[in-house]
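Worked example

This section walks through a single chain of length 200. The input is the sequence exactly as stored; nothing has been trimmed or padded.
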Amino acid sequence: MPPTPLTPGFFLRKPDRVARHLLGKLLIRQPNNPSGEPAIGRIVEVEAYFGSNDPAAHAFAGKTARNAVLFGPPGHAYVYFIYGMHYCLNVSCEPEGHAGCVLIRALEPIAGLATMARRRNLAANAHPRLLASGPGRLCQALAITRAHNGLDLTEPSYPLTLADDGFPTQPIDATPRIGIRHAADRPLRFTLRGNPFLSK
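Given that input, the structure is written out below as tokens.
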């Protein structure tokens, strides 16, 4: 079926619930000019982060200018810069005033693969797994930067949209989150079982 944008109500739940239900949904990056092709990826790997009870979360220490999006309306982009080289895309969850988010870790490219490859400085025929298997890679492939921080991801007229195309339910695996020091044992990384586009 044609992609239908997710609604803010989709994101009103706890981050782990939202994370599971985001798997299989589409992340759509509109082109910068009307003649361009959108870049679209299917979400295959996510991580859930909570608020004051999650030492690994950016919201753990409370609200700041940097993480204010996490305390705002649900369904908005929280984009941060890490290791001085990569952007990471999250989407806010829970009712306004309650922090929580889901980190989008990997996409299965669906459309606009040549555009993604160009943005990743790869050959146009690069293997699709090299395009968006990892949070930094997918942000580069979809040209996502801190400029998109705070964007409403449920609004189809905006550059980034999260949508549902009726992809059937798939088995899900839950494992500990990657690359964190605190609360590292919590099984809050969710993946589509056996998908070849998961991050390494």
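What to look for: The beta strands are 4-5, 26-29, 39-49, 77-82, 86-92, 101-111, 160-164, 172-175, 189-192.
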